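In line with agreed milestones, the collection of sequences with tokenised folds has grown. A representative record is reproduced below.
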Amino acid sequence: MSQPLDPEMFTGCSHVTSPFRIGGKWTPKIIRCLEASPRRFSELEVPLRGITPKVLTETLRSMERDGLVTRTVHGGIPPRVDYELSTLGRTLLAPMAACCAWAAAHLPELRDARAAHGSSSPAPALARTHETGPGRKTGPPSLSPNVEAS
């Protein structure tokens, strides 16, 4: 029997949004949860605060489709379902560790860049056309080809 997942396992993460994306938003955290041993759905919910059962189900299905996890149904009432990292899924552990180390080392620079980008003056809005009537454009608004970007 494996150790229960620590409900606080992601609390100490210094960065909420990783600059790297593997699969969906929750995929890297699920991979971390499955790193040591197979887990049941209810076990995965404990440290993954903020994930809805629907999103967890969708993410696990996507990961299974991509070959990152295997889903094993054991007989019984109710049936027991375990999720486990596949051999392919395990190949992501080393790159994920490197990404985490990079993010931890460069977090101040990353935050500064994001803050600088967010504080710059917004670009002027592009003109949109959506005219109706005889001889006029119909359909959804689109960008006007005559507008120059500044």
Q: What stands out?
A: The first strand starts at residue 39 and ends at 40.
